[in-house]
Structures are given as C-alpha cells and as structure tokens.
Amino acid sequence: MSNYLFSEILFSQGLFSDGLLGKNFYIIPITLLLPLTAALVVLQANPYQALVVRGILGAIAALVYALFGAADVALTEALVGTMLSITLYAIAVRSSMNMRLGILDSDSKSASESGSEYSPESPFTAALRAALKAHHMRLELVTYDNAAALQAALIAKEIHTAYDSKRFLKTRIEALYSILKTVDSPATANLTYLDLSRPLAQPLPAQPSDQTDQNLQEERP
C-alpha cells in the first residue's frame, strides 16, 4: 500500500510522465542513496570519517529536495542541516576526543632539558599517544606548579589524568583507565582510577588554639 501511494505521488508530480523508464527515472537511485549513506554514518568507527559521510548525506538530501521542487527546503538543509551541524559536530569531536594529562611544571622543564619522560620523543609519551591514537584520540599536556594544584585540577575535572612527582598515574574516567592499562610503560604500573562520584574524605576541622580557648573562657559570665 505504501509503495502504491509513493508511486501515486511521483506520478502526480509528473516525475513518471513518460513511464517507468522515463526521463525522471534517475531520481529513484539518488533517493535510494539516502538510507545507504545514513547507514554508513552509523557504522563509521572513526568520528572524523563519520563527519565526512554526514556531509555527503546532507548534500544528497538537499539534492533530493531540489529535484522534488522544494528549493527553499534544499537551501535550509544545505545551510543549517549540513554546514551548521557539521561545524558543531567537528568542534565537539575535537574538544572531546583528547586526553588532558596534568604534569608538574618542574618535571616538564627537566624533561625538556634531559629529553626524558615528558618529551614528545620519550617512550612514555609515545606509548600514550599510540594507545590513544588507536581510539582516535589525542594527548594534551597541561603543566601545574605543584602537586596540590595538580590534584585540585583533577578533582575539579579540569584534566582527565594526573601524573605526579611520585610517578603515580591517576585518571577520573573509567574508559581512559581501560585504555591506559594497555600501555606498556613503568608509569602505568602505578595506575589508579579515581571515582569522583563517591564523596571524598573531608579534612578534620582545625583544633582551636590555646589563645582561642582563653578568649572563650573570658567571654563566659
């Protein structure tokens, strides 16, 4: 029944005025590209390739709208449905598909001088980049002045992973913890997962000093 209604719509629009093999028969294969391209978007594992296929899907949809005489809808699909959405998707993918690794500034300076752990050519950094690249992610190094600032940044969710001066690697994201476990490096031997959904231990209140106790006693009647 649905095929019959679809054919009636095509004939009413004059698309099949010369029969099934008429001059407008090319619209059918172009229209069939829509579900095929949509399936390719869903099946893509690489997010950047999915954005490219999404652009192709939008172009085909705009072409189909134009062929059916809806030029205004085709223009809206091309400008808003395709260009704007792909721009927003690209910004979201680029900002989310990276791991921010917090390190100490002193360690970073010593590494740049000696060419050790934090330099781009070091085995540790190269192993991290290789593990993340397999998941289409990038590595971003963020430096902090001291260990307290590094720990605070991890708790405040400014970074995803922290590597302190004691060579402990901490991450607050469970998916990154699974990825980092596969890295063949001595640094990942001290890898821990920090679950921020659980309440952290609160520090004990400071004990009042002797001067404070004396002032309280003087204020009493």
From TrEMBL:
Region described as Disordered: 201-221
User: Where would one find coiled-coil regions in this protein?
Assistant: none
The entry's cellular-component GO terms read:
plasma membrane
Which residues are listed as membrane-spanning?
25-43, 50-68, 74-93
Where does this polypeptide localize?
A: Cell membrane
Q: What is its main location?
A: membrane
| Residue ranges occupied by any MrpA C-terminal/MbhD domain in the UniProt entry | 32-95
In Swiss-Prot or TrEMBL terms, this protein is called Sodium:proton antiporter
Say which species the protein is native to: Phormidesmis priestleyi
Phylogenetic classification of the source organism: Bacteria, Bacillati, Cyanobacteriota, Cyanophyceae, Leptolyngbyales
